[in-house]
Design a protein that fits this description.
Elements (H helix, E strand, L loop, with lengths): L1 E6 L8 H16 L4 E6 L10 H9 L8 H15 L2 E7 L7 H10 L6 E4 L2 E4 L5 E8 L14 H11 L4 E8 L5 H20 L13
Parallel strand pairs: 1-2, 1-3, 3-6, 6-7
Antiparallel strand pairs: 4-5
Helix pairs in contact: 1-6
Length: 213
């Protein structure tokens, strides 16, 4: 089983979202000890934003432009996703949405004519569906009775990844990291319960639905 983790915080391994994703990765290794993990730390090593070459390729096709550095980068990122049986995305919530580094990665991976096609009935994803486990940290609360901020992150990721064929999304979160140690401690416990519930719900015969052992 190949695991691809996309870690989006500039704080790297010290980030709450990365620590939450590590617990998810540990759960995956408990089920598949021979799994392989690839880390792409885009929070500390950002992917360049798309440029004119990719923008033109979106409208004109890749013919004649496939040798450009930006398209080669995009192709490499897409192939990483294609090679993964499971995606783990570790991301903070920035201003109620995804951080810019994650948006840049998405813009390389969500590419017309490559990971989705456009037809009379709209857009059709080209990627094989597989589990996408998203670890989110946020300074405030965006769900539950005490939510005080909007959430544009989870619906956006659900829509944009679904557009390329990735529909098996599961979200885990540590919310309220800016509200004090007691709030964070409780949020971590709740996140752990969510992770345990997810793994306990999986059938014993298969490590993770859609994944290869």
């Amino acid at each position: 089983m190949n695991i691809l983790r996309i870690s989006c915080s500039p704080r790297g391994q010290e980030a709450e979202s990365h620590r939450l994703s590590q617990r998810i990765v540990e759960g995956l290794f408990e089920r598949s000890p021979n799994a392989r993990l690839m880390d792409r730390m885009i929070g500390q090593d950002p992917v360049a934003h798309i440029d004119a070459d990719i923008a033109l390729a979106q409208h004109q096709g890749d013919a004649g432009r496939s040798g450009h550095a930006s398209l080669l980068r995009s192709e490499a990122l897409i192939r990483e996703v294609e090679a993964a049986d499971i995606l783990v995305i570790a991301t903070p919530m920035h201003n109620a949405g995804v951080p810019s580094v994650l948006k840049a990665w998405i813009d390389h991976v969500v590419r017309s004519g490559r990971t989705f096609t456009v037809g009379p009935e709209g857009k059709t994803g080209s990627l094989r569906d597989r589990p996408v486990l998203v670890a989110v940290s946020s300074g405030g609360r965006y769900s539950g009775e005490r939510a005080r901020q909007p959430d544009f992150l989870t619906p956006y990721l659900t829509a944009i990844l679904g557009m390329v064929g990735l529909r098996d999304l599961h979200f885990f979160s540590v919310q309220g990291t800016g509200l004090g140690e007691q709030v964070v401690a409780l949020a971590r416990i709740q996140a752990e319960h969510g992770i345990r519930a997810y793994f306990s719900s999986l059938p014993e015969r298969h490590p993770v639905p859609g994944a290869l052992a």
